[in-house]
Specification:
Blueprint: H1 2-22, E1 33-34, H2 43-56, H3 61-66, E2 68-79, E3 82-92, E4 102-110, E5 114-122
């Protein structure tokens, strides 16, 4: 019977370790933009880029849900006391191959406060007036 006690003890230990490791799992990201695994763009900037698309690009909510967003080129460059993230995004409808994909190009600078410094698009209208009176894109920092 000693053998059964060892198996139970090992199972309890294994389950405890798995539960502890589950607490370290990656938190869900609030961005629908797919980035490469080794992207130089941190999670907070990815979330900010998604907020830019939500607030500045002319997609209805249902359109954003239907479309796929893929960051096909993402780069980081040191500028002054911050980092500039250049992100190029393809937006397309996977089931409608006859429509050309929209291309969204943005530059986000993080120098202690995150801000959008450039926004260009094709096949979708995105508000590129960075000094306009419309509500600023904001993202809480933890």
């Amino acid at each position: 019977m000693r053998y059964d006690g060892d198996v139970v003890w090992r199972m309890v230990t294994l389950v405890s370790m798995l539960c502890a490791l589950a607490g370290f799992a990656a938190a869900p990201i609030e961005s629908r933009i797919l980035f490469a695994r080794n992207t130089p763009v941190p999670r907070l900037v990815q979330e900010f880029a998604w907020r830019v698309i939500e607030t500045r690009c002319n997609y209805q909510a249902y359109e954003r849900e239907q479309r796929s967003f893929w960051a096909y080129d993402a780069r980081a460059k040191q500028v002054g006391e911050g980092i500039a993230y250049s992100i190029n995004i393809l937006s397309y409808l996977p089931w409608k191959k006859s429509e050309p994909p929209a291309i969204i190009e943005m530059t986000v600078v993080d120098d202690g406060r995150m801000r959008l410094t450039e926004l260009k698009s094709s096949f979708v209208v995105c508000s590129s007036d960075l000094n306009s009176g419309q509500a600023a894109v904001s993202l809480r920092r933890s």
